[in-house]
Records
---
Amino acid sequence: MKKAEKSFTVNGRGHLAIGGVDTLELAGQFGTPLYVFDEEAIRRTCRRYREALGRSYGEGGLALYASKAFSCKEIYRIVGSEGLGADVVSAGELYTALEAGFVAAKIYYHGNNKTDDELLFAMEKGVGAIVVDNLPELRRLAKLRQRMDRDQDVLLRIKPGIDAHTHNYIRTGQIDSKFGFALETGEALEAVRETLGTEGVRLRGLHCHIGSQIFDTQPFVDAARVMARFMGEIRRSCGATLTTLNLGGGFGVQYIEGDDPVPFEETLAEVAVALRETCKEEGIPQPFVLVEPGRSIVNSACATLYTVGARKEIPGVRTYVSVDGGMTDNPRYALYQAQYEAVVANRAGEERNEHVTLAGKCCESGDLLGEDMPLQHCDSGDILAVLCTGAYNFSMASGYNRIRRPAVVMVKDGLARLVVRRETLEDIVRCDI
Ligand SMILES: Cc1ncc(COP(=O)(O)O)c(C=O)c1O
């Protein structure tokens, strides 16, 4: 088990515990598959972000929880109570946040293809800012805004042209990306000009997000410099002083033993120095800085519990261990061979003495949670945990094969509470006519 993961321990019975709670008891009480989150670990990370930003910017910085990583009412309550804002990317995420009582003014609305309904909904609810992705969207927004009695704050999403050395699907800051306005082509400056000339829309600042699961500091520093230089250029060529700079999320986390991300505190501190220097060089005031961490807030605080079913040993080939979930609750191996660590929860104290392919229960050969995974011996009925599944698992879960989505449990102070109930068969046909 990873030493860094304080959420996961082995208790006196040799069982895996999360936040001090025995996972076998959780599996018995709530069933499997089951996402189990350690609430205190989430809160600790939120505080680390607040403290790190406070050290660099005083009151001039704020972390927005990128709720695409894991969205349900309870997580908005938790991060909101820790003083964070939120980034949402659909009416569904916005609705969930508002239903949880999240302050609308601390919500930033993203997306590369927002519908009119979504734009109107966001404006009606009074989100802090809409992050405009493209000019047709800006023009629609300006038209829809006429139905409101106030101006709308916006940020523009910029592609800073930074290669963030991460997986292709989760790299977003380079020119060949569906998100935002490119700097190199002059498109971004044109967008700034048009926004400044658009009635009813207030250009508060810029946004960029260079990718996800980034282990190094340098791409963040480079992006901050590029964005601050662009703010300087805007001031010189358009006479506008922008007050907000959102540098996105993407801070890497550890999934498996070999993963070695730079702690986000170090990255944030270096970014702050670079930003201060560049603002000075450009002769612009230090903007209010936003960051949007998602994965790094929730991922390491969660494990998914499964019940082991069929075991198939194919001599000279491999051993398949099938569990009662799979790509429907965690599609990340199927999507981009994301690596995870697994542990047999009822033998957590024992050596991992075999290598197996962990398979799900979908009618799909690619429905795997990992291949060649070191694991304690396990058989039908054992409880298996896949660790560090807090981000982009529940939120990416699907209903393929009409498999019911698992429940979500939070543990805190030794107690577990259900925060999302398991889907029922009735839920499965709820929208069917
Ligand atoms: C615009 C934006 N902000 C923030 C994030 C969160 O990234 P992460 O979960 O890697 O911190 C993403 C993720 O793709 C994103 O697209």
Note: Confidence is low (pLDDT under 50) at residues 1-5.
---
Amino acid sequence: MNKKIRQLLQKINSEKILSKKFYPVWFFTNEKIDKFLSRLPGKENIKKIFGIGGAGDFAFTALSVFENLDEINVCDIRKTANITIDLKIALFEKLTFEEILELFLDLKPVNKKQIYERVKEKISPASKNLFDFIINNCKENNFLLCLKKSGLWYKDSFWQAKHRTTYLPYLTSRTEYQSLKKKLKNINIYDGDFYDNLKLSQNIYYDLIYTSNILDSKFYCKQVDLYLKTIKEKLNKNGILFITTQGPKKMLNLIEEYGFRLFCKELHRFNALASLLGHYSFSFLSFKK
Ligand SMILES: C[S@@+](CC[C@H](N)C(=O)[O-])C[C@H]1O[C@@H](n2cnc3c(N)ncnc32)[C@H](O)[C@@H]1O
């Protein structure tokens, strides 16, 4: 059965994506969050999460780290991000650990048609429109090369697979991967803005809400006030707000103004050399209300 991308606000328009009317997205995350999340006190009580979708790796990591997680709802304003998560879920469902490594570490050329045949019944109609186009119009036979050449993802967002021990904990061992496979059904993908989707889930409260690094960007978050008030409203009594940021001091002051208190932090300074190599220095902050 096709996985659903819940399109509460707008229909996903594959034509617009193909004509690059959306920005590129990350294929694999640029955030190294698993150590921080693994150390969160009381993590066994986290059962329901709402978060930004991005490359989907937050959701996959959360399923690895939080052993009692029953439901994780993610949303993204960029339709390509939701479609990426949809494709990755289908690939993880259908491919073995060894096949996934061969594909993403580019250990040997993986035939695009063979792979796509195996996953296409698992993805949503919107994703299928897009991937039918990519696969049929790409001159290469290699699946990974076709994704890279489509220009829909940041080029340097594929290499994180080579650094999987720091970015992708669920790809570090066969056991981790098998365990993720069993929990993929707990992920729900919503299309659209974070605030709109969070607000729409009436009478639902979360144990953790994750905003990635959007609160410090006016481009991503035009109404920081509404976002923070709604997050506070939608968290359970002991719920946690988790953010990644490159400006921890500013974020700490801002979020505390809304009555949250700092719970745990892991700070990373900007490092020019690391940044040249494509490693962002995100800091991690979690808060309780
Ligand atoms: C800053 S990007 C970084 C990618 C991310 N670090 C990851 O690990 O995948 C965060 C993601 O948030 C999405 N986004 C930004 N503002 C949003 C909003 N207001 N509502 C929903 N998604 C948003 C972007 O489309 C992007 O995919």
Note: Residues 25-26, 29-31, 52, 54-55, 57, 75-78, 81, 193-194, 212-214, 220-221 surround S-adenosylmethionine (CB under 6 Å).
---
Amino acid sequence: MPHTPFRLDDRVALVTGSATGLGQAIAIGLAQAGADVVVSDLPGQSTEETAQAAAAHGARVLHLDLDVRDQEQIAAAMETVKAEFGRLDILVNNAGINRPTAGLDVTRDIWDDHFDVNVKGGFFVAQAAAPMMIQQGHGRIIFISSQSGLIGIPGQPVYCATKGAIINLVRTLGVEWARHGITVNSIAPTFVETNLTRTRLQQPEFLAFVLGKIPAGRLALPEDVAAAAVYLASDGAGMVNATTLSVDGGWTAW
Ligand SMILES: NC(=O)c1ccc[n+]([C@@H]2O[C@H](COP(=O)([O-])OP(=O)(O)OC[C@H]3O[C@@H](n4cnc5c(N)ncnc54)[C@H](O)[C@@H]3O)[C@@H](O)[C@H]2O)c1
């Protein structure tokens, strides 16, 4: 196959939280572009559907239980990837939670739960993946932040804070690790209908508010986010580092 800058042949990718939603679409998109994929999610969450769809594109697929809050599981996951594939080229830190809670009602537990998964989890998976990438002299680390990290959305201050933290985390890690051939970026999608957002988007008033903010006039699709991940993972994005790619149909531009 001729080399094109957006193909991912011979690359190995790990996607966290890929049983469903955006993680599932990203894992399938990376497979479609030629990568082998490690699909992972919380223990007990089946990644079978994702694995089958990725394998249908010819990818070699490995399932892993990986709770991103668990340091032992993170270390074990990296050992398994090394033993099975001998390398890790692409990490997509997709796992995330959002339990919308107004500022006056936020408890310390709600605060910690969000930061533990969305920020601390992603950071320590990236930290564990980096040594393999440094050894290879090549790596792509992609966090899924959100437009909620660029703007405030009433009713979810903690989620917005976690996503803002990711946006500055990728700036710093991208600068630190660039000399090893690693890029670290994030994707900031607008609303996509998934298990995370379905209940809110099914409320006509909320949906109207959201659509009224998106100049493109529609929600994003999981495939829109997957395409951005394929781009950032590719050789074509080698000079795109320490930044955030909005996939929001223009919401954050005005
Ligand atoms: N859906 C949207 O509108 C939207 C918009 C912007 C950003 N995002 C972000 O995209 C990512 C994926 O969201 P989604 O909409 O697909 O949500 P989702 O709830 O459909 O999927 C999230 C996945 O993460 C997994 N997960 C949760 N906690 C985990 C943990 N501790 N360890 C490993 N896996 C864990 C879940 O089991 C689930 O499979 C999240 O980071 C989310 O914040 C979503």
Note: Residues 108-136 form the longest helix (29 residues).
